[in-house]
Amino acid sequence: MYRILHASHQHTGDKWCIYPMYDWAHGQSDSIERITHSICTLEFENHRPLYDWYVQNLGIYAPQQIEFARLNLTYTVLSKRRLIQLVQEKHVRGWDDPRMPTISGYRRRGYTPEAIRKFCERIGVTKTDGVIDISWLEDSLREDLNKRALRVMGVLRPLKVVIENYPEGQTEQLEAVNNPEDAAAGKRQVPFSRTLCIEQDDFREHPPKDFFRLAPGREVRLRYAYFVKCTGVRRDPETGRPIELTCTYDPATRGGDSPDGRKVKATLHWVSADHAVEAEVRLYSHLFTKPDPDDVPEGADYRANLNPESLEVLKRCRLEPSLRDAKPGDQFQFERLGYFCVDTDSKAGVLVFNRATTLRDSWAKIEKAQQKKK
Predict the structure, then answer these.
(1) Looking at residue 342, what is its pLDDT?
(2) Domains in the chain with CATH codes
(3) Cβ of 97: how many Cβ atoms within 10 Å?
(4) Of 29, 101, 118, 163, whose Cβ has the fewest other Cβ atoms within 10 Å?
(5) What is the reported pTM?
(6) Would you call 233 exposed, middle or buried from its count of C-beta atoms within 10 A (0-12, 13-18, 19+)?
(7) Among candidates 226, 220, 222, which has minimal Cα distance to 254?
């Protein structure tokens, strides 16, 4: 019932030398607090007979203890001992690091209470030990934010585009939808000018099969804007990488459709270079490289599977000007890129965004499959 230990306690010093054992204190604490159902994980199932025996023989109010399987997620550790170790050894930036499976970590990353509740409803409660694929949690977040998050355009790895037949010094405002899932979210104005930024990944000088985005001589649609065709490429003289594209636009396609009925196979997001807001964007991925962090060679521990690329920080990203006044905790869908949340590190004039989760990218999957074949 009690442990006797003649040692100094970190809180009470030498005031006590007797401490109640778990099985003795558990039932009494639940009874005093009038707990109706004491919910425990399966390892406490063997303790229940003693829990019940103490309560019954004391003649006090008897709660009901119920055991269920512990929630385990792939690519994650949930042991408090291990989480403390990750923090103390600085593998993460603290308990609220967006890679941590803590409430403060998930909140900072951009997870909503509704998404977590939806995830718990989906997986249910069971008495069988198992591991839930973390994609279930990510899908719950996508489903929730798809309904509530405002759509915006942001370019994470900018590639300059100059529309050579667009008037110099001219700016026009184009109408964009805030959320196609919520008509009440309304619309906004997005500035368009001669010099734009697009994603580096949206251009290939020598496009492989099934790549339908921008390439020399190819025409694509700019979201909410015009059809543009690539007419030239300027490269870095040292690396040979494209650093600037020249394009022409078709004024008749304003809004994204062609009066003559011609079709394009890709729609790209973009921002006006002259009006863009600069930001830092932090791309988070799994903290571990394997679904089971304990899948390690003999003699190693779970830390051998820590993912050195679990955080990528992108500087000088370009976002549309509607984000200029975004506040910590605000959530957005960056069109074609994923869901992002304003981080608490943001300050006046210095925006920091965390990626909560990605969107599905069909070309990325194709490219990854081709690399595996090679």
Answers:
(1) 98
(2) 2-68 (3.40.50.620), 80-150 (1.10.1160.10), 151-272 (2.40.240.10)
(3) 20
(4) 29
(5) 0.86
(6) middle
(7) 226
